[in-house]
């Protein structure tokens, strides 16, 4: 597959109408009047399938980034239950699948039930026939095996609201206890009901940067669902056993997303229509296309992924003016509709109506193929992409008056493609913006600025990313306080050259870059937080202070990236440093094998460089300082030359060292194989250097290497695994020389998609041959050659690539003496 992009400006306009209460921290006692919660949803259908003594009224919540408080006003009787189904924005639960059968309580009987949202976790509260206490069961849902894990948690001692605590983390895969209080006095006081305090750490795979939504329904332990639920209306009849809630038309059986920290939820619907074309991108079988209406102000713009094996585009973006904006777009053009359903979790908003959030003027700054499924899922295993938009401006208005302005906004979105490319379940992302200080309403800025002068965003959509002729794209944006400081920069780049992105402390030396449509860009983002993730074997620690995300709009790029580590504390030995790389936060860290350490290769003592990168993703700094090998392994790294990988390692001391097996596997899912053996030095107290060359590799794929160090007595230990990437170029290319202008020398980079004889020739402007730099057989790959201008006069020169017996490309360069 080849990735093609075109810059576009995307405007997201959302209008909100809110009635927002004041927040106070609740006390768990089954009485929701002793604290002012935030209203999340309410019972509105009027259905009474469970009878007089089974009722639901309101769902209230409060969250402080550590704990989630829920209050459900209502009551149950006679062995009936209240079931709560949770969806967290960054956790992948059952998706569009049926729930799957558990083993306890109602969970054992609802296995073929299907919800209309992604269920991640669930709780069941069932009244006991004999003593009227509540039995509590919990269930964790996942896409991967086991898809369901559930267990009994405990029971309350009474129904008077007394709080009890149980270990819920043991069931949900996290850490912590749930507090439960239930007061059955709802018939006399409609503030009574079920009240919960749940640590966010209870939910495995969930953190406070995410958002949640919930569905509450009354049923029985036998898995029978009544038509009393919040939210939604199942109809006049009870849904019964194993219903399909997703098949009930025009209903949503889930609340709005709510933040787990201080913030405000905005919901929007972009509703575009044109009578003969799709708006969010169709599976088109033609090249990038445009639709002109009148003066052309209604326009599709290509921004997507070309799927070579079926000749279609899996995703295309659109720029389309709303009705009444721009000429020629008044008939059948785009509409932006606004939703009223919103949530807030703040301490300063109260009875505020008509809050509007506008985010606009973004440009696409990076994109990356992603495969969230197993290898082989979807054509070529590609199931979606990761996109970063930057440069946006954000406004918040109350009754038309501006109260908040943020600049240099970023939105990063993971997009799942629809079938057959992926599951098409959702689009999810995050973002940030910088406060434009002294221009904001003091209450808003004080509430959302925790001292770092930044806000954060959450972005969620469960609408298909590909619509047919008519479609409504529903999405949620949550504006939150900025709990993490980040620095980012975007730089337009050429096919070669050196670029410095100061804010995140990154330097990029581009050797080669290709893009068919749009502008070549490189993005660097430094996030000052712990990235989490599992460490590779042999890596003892990584910085808990920061990590970097690199991205590009280029279809292919070859570059070296230098990271500034001057602000990272507690570095005592730079010889033990490694650069860690992972595709996304869902993946484990890997050691990048080709690294230049601080102080070497032209670097300062506060810089470290990842060499020969072919893909961008997330990077962090790690250390092998406490290596557990029988020998003291100081370094294990490598270099790439054409299709050869040279491994180098060094020991400080050795004891009883027989030697090293060199092992390799191809791609992450491959099997380890032994390539060869290198003898050790037995016992040594001096530095020893070793090397091994793995040659004639195919020019594509990821290659992983590790050392199996063996003692004289047969005991062994493995080193850290290091990784390299090789990628065969897709076409002939001759890149702009660097530096240019130059004196006295410059570097010319070229790439070859196949083996053959290659010439690099230099001509003056009169067409006279000045120098033959290259004339030899070359294998497919990327090459550099230095041109030194001894004896030549200042002026413009032509350099030419000849391959396959013909002239392929020419470029100009300027010599200034």
Quick structural overview:
With 817 residues, this protein is mainly β. It is built from 2 helices and 55 strands. The radius of gyration is 30 Å and the shape is elongated.
Verbal overview:
By secondary structure, the protein is an all-beta fold. The protein folds into 4 domains: 2-15 and 265-484, no CATH class; 38-261, no CATH class; 487-726, Sandwich (Immunoglobulin-like), CATH 2.60.40.10; 733-815, Sandwich (Immunoglobulin-like). It is built from 2 helices and 55 strands. The longest helix is centred in the middle third of the chain and has 7 residues, at 442-448. The chain is elongated, with a radius of gyration of 30 Å. 44% of the residues are buried. Residues 1-23, 271-341, 374-382 and 466-471 have low confidence and may be disordered.
